[in-house]
Amino acid sequence: MPVKQSEFIVSNSDPAKCPAPDRPEFAFIGRSNVGKSSLINMITGRTSLAKISGRPGKTQLVNHFLIDNTWYLVDLPGYGYAQVSKTEREKFAALIDTYLRTRSNLVCTFVLVDSRIDPQKLDLDFMTNLGERQLPFVIVFTKTEKLSGTKLAEQLSNYRARLLETWAETPQIFVTSATAGTGREELLTFIQSLTTK
Description:
Blueprint: E1 6-12, E2 25-30, H1 36-44, E3 62-67, E4 71-75, H2 86-102, E5 106-114, H3 121-132, E6 137-142, H4 149-163, E7 173-175, H5 184-195
Parallel strand pairs: 2-4, 2-5, 5-6, 6-7
Antiparallel strand pairs: 1-3, 3-4
């Protein structure tokens, strides 16, 4: 499922001002510096659709992109910024919460996790919150090109084991690399399967 057209629509700090919920919507979120912008650019086949920054926490607004005039890709602010004030963190958290709670056309949230890092409480708590609110999500492991095949398998196994401590079954997992293009077709096929129902 190649992406033929992708265009930036709007950025805002108020979910009430998001585009009309007239198309399926897929949100991407993760901790700061997880590689979200690179993944979005890889998925869309654009080099600079989402702005990449060496400074963690660059995304501070809800960014909507229209894909093939069919569905919205939403770039959400990350969670867990270490280098902003508590007030700013609370503001981001409220923005994310309001978006997730009010977007009637949100089909699925893609929670990005750095494959090199062991399970983090912040990520697990965020996933638990989504589950408790019955908001569909999948896990997307990023930066997998930085690990050997053996180490990646070990990390995935450890993550699944940690999830199964509290979950009856693990959410669907995607393995990606923005550098190598790994996982692009799998993600797009998954999105297509949910936009054609």
